[in-house]
Amino acid sequence: MKSIVRKILLVMAWLLAGIIILLLLSGLLIQTQPVKNKLARVVVKQAEKVVNGELTIGKISGNFFSNLSLEDVLWTYREDTFIYINSVAASYSLWPLTRGELQLSKASINAPYVNFQQHQDSTWNFNSLVNEQTESSTDTTSASGNFRLLLSNFQINAGRMQIQALDSLIPNEVRNINLEADGAYSSKEQTLNLKRFGLQTHSPDFDLRELSFAARRTEENISLNDFHLKTAQNGLDATAKYSGDETKEIFAEMQTNPITINEFEFLLPNFTLPAQPEISFKANSTQKGVEATLSVRDKNQQLNLDLFSENLLQFINGSDKTGLKYNVSGNIENINLAHWIGNPELDHTINGNFKIDGNGTDPKTADIKVDGDFRDCVFAQKPVKRINLKLRMNHGDLSGRINAKGNFGSLTVLPEIKDLLERPTSKMQLVTKNLNLAPLLGNDSLQSDINLKADLSGEGFDPEILQVRANLKLSKSSLAGYQLDSMMGQVNYSQQNIVIDSLWANAESLHLTASGNYNLAGSSAIELVAEFENLEDFSAFIPLDSVYGKGNVNAQLSGRQDSLSLAANVELQKAGFTDISAGKLVVNATGQLTPGDTTFSAVAQLESFKAGSFELDSIRAAANYFIDSLQLEMQANGNELQTQLKSEIALGNVIKIALSEWDLDFKNQHLHLAETPAVLELDSLEYRLSNLKMVSDNTDSAQYIKAGGVFSQHGDEDFEFEVANVDIPGLLESFGVNAEISGRINAEARLNGTASLPELNGSLEIDEALVYGYKFTDFGGTFNLKDDRLNFDGQVVPLDTGMLEIKANIPLEARFDSMSFLVDSNAAVSGGVTVQRFPLSAMQFLDEAEKVEGFLDGQLNLGGTLKSPEPDGNLSLKNAEILIPKYGIEYKNIILDLQFSENAAQLDSFFIKTDDGNLKATGAVDFGSAIYNGKIKQSEINIHFNSFNPVDHRQFNMEMSGDASLKAEGGKMVFDGDLEIPEANIYLPAIMNLTGQFTKPELPEPVLMREIQKLKDTTIVSVAVNDTISVNDTLSIGSLSNLTGRLSVKIPQNTWIRNKELYVEVSGDLEVIKNPEFFELFGSINVVRGQYQLLGKTFKIDEGSITFQGGEELVPRLNIQAVYAFRNPEKVKQELTARVSGTAGEPEISFTLDGSQISEGDALSYILFGTAMNELSIAQQENVSGAGQIAGSAAMSLLSSQLTELLGEKLDVDYIELKGEGDFENATVVVGKYITNDLFVSYEQRFGETDEKDLSKYEVKLEYELFRFLFLQLNNSSSESGFDVIIKLNSN
Asked: Which residues form a coiled coil (predicted)?
């Protein structure tokens, strides 16, 4: 028995040993490479039974017990790689399998590559990689509930995917896929710890730099910890926890970095978020419910939400059937919608709080309340002080109230909508109080105060069944300054038909009514009538300045939507704007609007049209518009202009204007179309004009303007323009110019070449030219533009002798393709002016000139560039003479010699001779670089006056001696001079007349009436003086800051200033100093002697001076004293002295009578009546021998001056005087005239009763000035004849 047992044990031992040896041998065999290769082929063969394509494994390594590695794993399908893995490795422990646990200490996939392709039918290549398996019997074995998987380290390194997809959102390539994680799995618990994960995509581009988290799930809890996401531009951190046990605990928290939404543009192509907000979220559950906070912030803009729900968890689990209950409280600070949405039109800033209380999520059954209080908001840059709203949505019914207040006034909306989601019926009331449109619309001209109440009601929202009724009531309001008293209106909408039952408005100058209907599907008929009294009240709505007028408007719209008729009548009376006006304007217009065609006709009639000084009696215009053409007729008639035209315009890609009639009459000029039609064609590239010729008549010598050809902005040019036989006198007369110029203008121009390089040739000639009596045999020239050079050659040839020729060649770049004309200042120029014995008499354009003689010679050549020209030549004038008696100019032996060079102009000599002396000048102007630059390097001009007579007229003459100079260097100019005026005689009215001050004599109010009226105001004397003396406080010399110097003027005596009332001799010494900032004037002007006539009385000027003391302000000091000697009613001689002191700006005037101070009123009384004011009586005022005598003298003095002004020029006399002894019973008329500057003749005739013994009936005097100090006077009268010798001696 023992032996049997031993044998059995021995056999079993051998069997066990054999098994162990076999296992050992198997373990050893699978470690060999041939066996591993064999196993790889077996694995591949088995895999090919399941998948399509070809699978190969390059190499298997590892001991199979603790680690295994596969290399060069390749899966191809249809000769294209699907998956390639460089290596797959795993380290594990098999022993834990005995207790149902698989432990992987490490697993890695290195450099995997996957190629995904999507076919045109949207299927992918991997859909065909796995074979369809036949159904097998169901596996009824149950998995062990205790199996557990532990993964300590799993990595994917340098992975890459190539994707060919139809959707552009799927990237073409995913590269740099790297992952590292560990975790565990069992039926009761799962954990995943993602340590790192990152990838990059291409087209679209995305960079996931880091993703990590720790997640755990059990049968009752789920948690997410340390969640961290980072991309190239964004970042997110979060944590969350959920307990499914009885506590139902929820906790979540999230925080983002500033979000840059552009990174996800490929996912959200139409979504923009200019803001970069930070988002914070936190939620947790409590015993009362779930609480959450959400904060969105970008700089100073933020939105904060507080959320609470007492049954959120129950609602999610479905255990609460009552509906979700929630409360939301929000706070908005400086949220700008344009900043968040990216639409600049939504420039709205919101501040405020709101609250939402809700029960339920189904709008049909939910009860939701919304309360909002928004303050200091801004909508479209318009501030809104406060918006308050209360809305409630209760089982499909909406009601509430919305209030808004701001600097625009207040606005209230009361909505009430029943059954909003099914069959809504609505009521709404809109109320505005003091509504101001100016801040709302950003237009200050629309300042308004609108008070409106609108009640609306209706059913439905679908336009097919919508019905709306609106009642409008506007109480007293204003719009843009226009006051509107009231407006009432009732408008209904039903079945696509808008019915205006009534609409009327009343205001101070407006009455408006409207009624009718507009049907979207049927017939419409609307009428509008408006009457207005003053268009100025509507100036804020009319884009014209200073508009005015009154009138009415009547308009009707009728027909179906596919065939609408429009008729309108507008009538304005006495209307206009700025300086344009019309007595009456009537416009009648009709139109037809259809989907396929639109026609429009209008007739406008304008009467009494004025535009500044231009006037037309009437204008009539008629237009007919069709979808492809426009017909236009117009007539205008006025005193100076009449015109009429007819045209038809074809509309299309090429606009064709056919002018069938055009007549133009302007004053004495007439033009009309010679042939019809004249055609103008316009397109985007060319303008083509043909058959345009305007002629004055049908004769061969008629004036005409002709134009035609092609003007292109891109192609070839071929355009001609011609003007012929234009009569110069008639043309000047048309423009109101009176000049002795005649001749006929002929000009032509032709444009050729291309738009980028045009060529222009032309000429201008004046035939039979006659200028102020001087004939010219040649007057004209030619011009040419070619190769960006403009050439001009002109000649002026007088009839007798001489010639003036001008030639020029300058750079001019003309581009009609860009409509630019450029002159290159650095390009070369050439030209010249040739003057050969050109008579000055040919330049005698002033009719005042009696004699202009002399010849001008010279040659001036020009080279260099426009920026730095190089002139060279000379200009000379010899033995010239200019005589203009009207201005007292009599210059003889005029000599001029002027030399030009590149850098200088040399005045070799300049000489003028007058009767008493001459003027000489020499000098040079040296320019630093070129004359064109105007930068003076150094210059000096010296002028010597030797008894020179600038003017020598019988009424104004002057003699001047001395030296003056002007020097310049480095941009600074200095003048210096010492001048003396030995004698002068100035008659002020003659000077004023020459300067245009006295062009039309006007009879003033009688002096006595004027002066007696002034007696009522005792301050009138000083006011009158202030009105007489006018002083400029300062001189504006900002442009003369580089000019300094001094000029001394000495007036020894013998300088007389006179007018009708004034005759004084002055002397003095003045010095003008020019500082860089201002002028200064020093010295004084003294009155040597003189007299002044006031109200027929002679004031003798004993002394007087005007003193200048320098300073920036020109304020001279006055010291003038005048004495009037008279006899009072008691025949006692008295002297009235008037003294003026102070400054010219604030003069002080005082009066003394025989050394005693008197008032201004008494002074005027003594002048008029010879006695003081308090001594006047009614009898004295009525006594003709008292006031009447003086009044008569004053009247005679005034009448003399008026007769001189009114009759002097017509009778060709220089002096008219009426004298008398206070009445016209014994009066004398004196008439005088200068025969020459030295010879004066006068005739005196007496009227009334005369004493033959003492007085002569008439007297003739002849005065002749032999020298300045010696006069001879001859006289002849009805009683005696003789002569006198007068010697005038100066006291100094």
From this structure: none
